[in-house]
Amino acid sequence: MEGITGSVLLMCFIGLIDANTSPSIEPGVFSICEDIPKDHAAFTILATDLEGDTLTYEINGPNAAYFTVNRITGVVSIERNLDREASNYMTLGVYVYDGQTGTQKELTLIIEEANDNKPIFQEPSYDIDVNENTAIGASLFKAEATDADTSSAGVITYSIDEVTPSDGSSLFSIVATTGEVRLKGSLNYTALSTFYRLKINATDGGGSCHYRPIKNYFSRVVFSFVTVVDVPDLDPQFIGLPYEGKVEENALVDTFVFRVTAMDQDTGVNDKLLFSIEDSTAAMGLFKISQMDGIISVSSDIDREEIGDTVTLTVKATESKDNIHGVQASTTTDVQINIIDTNDNPPKFYKCGDTADERSCVIASDFTGDVVEHSLGAVFINMTVKDLDKIKKMKLTLEGLNSDVFSVEPQSTASDSIVQLLVKQPQNLDYENIQTIVLTVIAIDEGDTTFPPRSQNDTYKLEVAEHSPAGTVLGNITADDPDTMDEGNITYKLLPESILLYFDVDPHTGAVSVKNATLLDREEFVKEGQDFGLKIQATDADESDTQNSQLVFGIEPSRYKDNFTINPETGVLTNRGKLDREALDPDLDGRIELNVTATDKGTPPLSTMVPVIINVEDVNDNGPKFKAPSYKFSVKEGEKGAFVGSVQAEDLDQTTEFNRISYSIDNGGFGSFIIRTFADERGYRGNLTVDFDLELDYESTHKQYTLQVEAADLEQMTATVMVEVDVLDVNDERPEFKPSEPVKVKENTTTSGAVGSFTAQDKDGNHSLVYELESIKCRCNGSMTDCSWFILDPTGEVRVNPEHTIDYEQCDLAVIEAQVVDEYTEKGENNSVTTGEMVIEIEDINDNAPEFILSNSVFVVVSESASKGTSVAGVSATDRDSLIHRQVEFEVTSVQFEDNNNKTTDMRMLYEAINTQQKDIYVGIIQTTEGLDTSLKGRYLVSVSATDSGKLSTSTVLEIFAVDESFRVNLKFTQSKAMVEKNLDEIIRELIFATKAEVEIAAIRPDVPESSRASDNTIVVAYFVYSNGTALTSTEVETLISDPDHVYILIALGLADIGKAPVVEAETDPLGYILMGMVAGLIVVLTILTTSLMCTRRNYRRKLKAAKAMNSASMVTSNNQKSGAVVPGTNKYTMEGANPVLNLNIDTTMVLDMDEDSSDVDKVSLNSLDDRYSMNEVSNMKSIQEEEEEEEGDDGGPPKYIEPLRAALAQQGQKKASDKPDVGFINPAFSTTDL
């Protein structure tokens, strides 16, 4: 010290304190399974402490909500479900504390795959139309699904679980790896089903992570409706075969003959058909056909005698469009048309050769014959009378001068006949009187005004014994044509046709013969409606012209006796009233048997009886009649070929030829019904069925059909009846979900009532819908996961699951997927095609208190610089609730001060919280409400509460370390206050560079000595504080800024001296006067220390002056000067080692102490704190921790602070050995401006 020649020996007691090291955390990467259940261990934080202190574990960071940690063991367990698909890794902040120091580290967690996602089809359904002629092996569509899982769990295998109808299972296949559906068999629209429903399954590869080796598999199904499209590959088909029509000859052009009906067997195409006549057994052109509707009509004149009794047409039906082969498909059928004869030809006479062959007969008008005079018998004149009409009736008469001599036979005929002359008056045949007789034979056609052939006799009486052998000739019938005299064209035929069972006639000769001996019986035939007449002849062998030979005819009583009468004298049996075949017992088949008696008038009268069998032939004089005026049936929908009901009609005609009935649907069927005819016990019934290729649909527009059914006999006598068919609803429709609006449910709801309801509809009238749960997924942290918050009643009502609590902060949305099933389904699938979905929006309520965000910041306040409104600390918090519920307000609830002796004292409200917000985080800035006591040493314990809008709150305690006035450093500048304030930013920056600490300026004031009223010097009161709460004393500041790299700059800025803060006397306990002796000793010691420090201060003042002189010297140029400035008295150019600037010796081997007597300063540069350090590098220095002595017998004295310079000098060697990048550290507690 200046003015003192001696020295003071200070005894220093040095205590070695073991430095506490921070815990070490390893490793930094963990792999965990995403399917680890909640509350199960995921990994263990591995940390060690060299001192073996008990470690406490904490987790922090944005992902801390997914985990919980055992603070003692470090075992980290799952709090929320993990989702690798959302992120395959996450970071987790870990803080390990040993009771004194802590270590923060960020761990990387790799999320390993587990099979927790179902495959999802890209389409809700795959519906496709497929032509029935699609080639086998063709690709139909691709049912593609995705799985959010990776590895084998994301590999999807496809299969077809079910095909409806089941016989279509062999028609389709699917590629297991790609989902490509291919056609495996041939489709057929007509013979097979027209649609198929495929149930396609996508199953993932399975897997797990946490539960290895057990694998769990997920699958999902989707439906595909394959509609078979009909293509024109079948020929058309005529229906209602065989076809037989009739038309009269000479019918007018365009007369309707018959209508053919055809259909396209490709019912799905239903192409229009075009009709044409391709061939005819008669000349083409007689008939024509309507191209569109198949009506056959007359095209030109028809002559039955020319073309015959029948004409067969070959009719063709052709599709209007090309089929799949590029041609128009067609089919043909035969239509037989019967030509009904009309009486349009006159009788003609023919002369035939000896062979009597038809071809030998020629038309002639002159005929000759020979007769022996006075002879009886027939005269052969080779005359044959013919009528080309099918139905003929000719009457022959004889005219001429001697026509009385002869008679002509037959006098009438219904067939072609040989005409003969019979001698009636042989006495007039006298050759001597007449040699030639010319007669005229006239044949008259009794059918019309033309002249039919005429037989010689109107009636031929032929007799034959019953059961005569077949071929027995009864007689010859002959006829001629009086018009042409050409009897060669006359043919003979027996009528009615029913007699042909018994007899036959030679068509050329007219010879009548027996045809069937068995059937030959005494019977008479008469058509109903016609008059019957039969002469019963009998003879009596008694003498003629006596009573004994006179006969009286009568009819014996019988069932049908009253229908007939007999002339008692002539024996002519006739009908009484009209004969009606239908009035007879059907079992008699029209056969009436009468017993006719012939009784003579003798005495006693003798009689005989003969049976007379009369066959009443049926004619078509009755049309069909329905047995009911109308019919009403019902049929279930959806059944192909279902039986609907039967209509019944009867034709009273008794022969099948006339009473056979056929049914047809004239109108109202829309092609949906078919009617078929069946013989009934009486009449015929028509069975009405649904078309075998169609299904009725109750849900369509046709719920009721009104059919007009026609019954027709073979001769087209018709009757119609109305048939009403009601389509009955069959539960065959699948239910469908109605769209549902989103439902809102508040979290923590405990209501037992329904929060929402699924609604579905079923087109069927009779149904019972039951709802089944498919899945419930909740949106948690942006991804959908399975949850069980709700239950679904069979009625469709959705309720809250009482076993779970709805938490908005965990999941904010729920999606319920349900299926609806119709229990009354009778046909087809009973569930809906698509599932129903209900979206439930979880509404937030205020059920979460704010949560403080952990911070490792150390808060420090410089008591002297603090004033009202000074920000000293900060807290941040979030609230898991949403909207208004998450708004947080901070409030300081209490303030305490804990001194260095751990004594806690309640304080007034020295602090307050200012609320602000940064995005979703609420921040509370802790500010002082007044100036602080600068003498307090220790820390403030500030209780801060965070309260949301619902008055839910939580609190935390902040530790704010107080920097007391003992750390005040007075910096004296040789400049005015104004100049110092102007250069203040540069001064602070250089001080920070030198000390690596935050610089807090407490005051700037002029330095006014007592002996002077004015001065150009200025005192800057500053504090040098580190981010961990420690501060530098004035001595430590002097040491750090003595570095030439900084001191020159500071001197240039006017720094002249560094003064120490005044020593604050410890408060004495008023009750401790008994310790006055000890206090006196302490005062002595303090006096010595103060004297020593003052001397040191003067030395530094001298050093600063020397540095200033050096600065001036550096500006002088000298030839002897080497590369740098000449510093007087330094060891830069001399070997003395004296440094009058700093008066310090720096030994590189020393860590803390600085010996003023050492001369090693010439060996070591004072650039130990290189100016390359920026403020960012301060953070890389180890924090200076405040420690309490743990020695036994600790008296609880104030803690000792480790000199910051020690750490700074210790790192200099490392800094020069490595080129580490600058790393910044920002202390949010204060800045040079705030402090």
Structural overview:
With 1235 residues, the chain is mostly beta strands. A five-stranded antiparallel β-sheet has the order 29-28-30-34-32, with no helix packed on it. The chain has eight helices and 81 strands. α6 packs across α7. 8% of the residues lie in helices and 38% in strands.
What descriptive keywords fit this protein?
rod-shaped, single chain, 5-stranded antiparallel sheet, mainly beta, 5-stranded mixed sheet, 1235 residues
Q: TL;DR?
A:
Helices cover 8% and strands 38% of the residues. With 1235 residues, the chain is mainly beta. The model is unreliable at 1-17, 1063-1068 and 1116-1235 (pLDDT under 50).
SSE inventory with pairings:
Elements: E1 24-25, E2 29-33, E3 41-44, E4 47-48, E5 56-60, E6 67-69, E7 75-78, E8 89-97, E9 102-112, E10 120-121, E11 128-131, E12 139-142, E13 145-146, E14 156-164, E15 172-174, E16 180-183, E17 195-204, E18 219-229, E19 237-239, E20 243-248, E21 256-259, E22 261-263, E23 273-280, E24 287-289, E25 295-298, H1 304-307, E26 310-322, E27 328-340, E28 348-351, E29 362-363, E30 378-386, E31 394-400, E32 406-409, E33 412-413, E34 417-423, E35 439-445, E36 454-455, E37 473-476, E38 479-480, E39 503-505, E40 511-514, E41 523-527, E42 533-535, E43 551-555, E44 564-566, E45 572-575, E46 591-600, E47 607-617, E48 624-626, E49 630-636, E50 643-651, H2 656-659, E51 661-667, E52 673-679, E53 684-690, E54 704-713, E55 718-728, E56 736-737, E57 743-746, E58 754-757, E59 760-761, E60 769-780, E61 783-786, E62 790-792, E63 797-800, E64 813-822, E65 836-843, E66 851-852, E67 859-862, E68 871-878, E69 888-899, E70 904-907, E71 911-918, E72 921-928, E73 938-948, E74 953-963, E75 969-973, H3 977-982, H4 984-995, E76 998-1006, ...
Parallel strand pairs: 2-9, 11-18, 20-27, 41-47, 49-55, 57-65, 67-74
Antiparallel strand pairs: 1-4, 3-7, 5-8, 6-7, 8-9, 10-13, 12-16, 14-17, 15-16, 17-18, 19-22, 21-25, 23-26, 24-25, 26-27, 28-29, 28-30, 30-34, 31-33, 31-35, 32-34, 36-38, 37-40, 39-40, 42-45, 43-46, 44-45, 46-47, 48-50, 50-53, 51-54, 52-53, 54-55, 56-59, 58-63, 60-61, 60-64, 62-63, 64-65, 66-68, ...
Helix pairs in contact: 4-6, 6-7
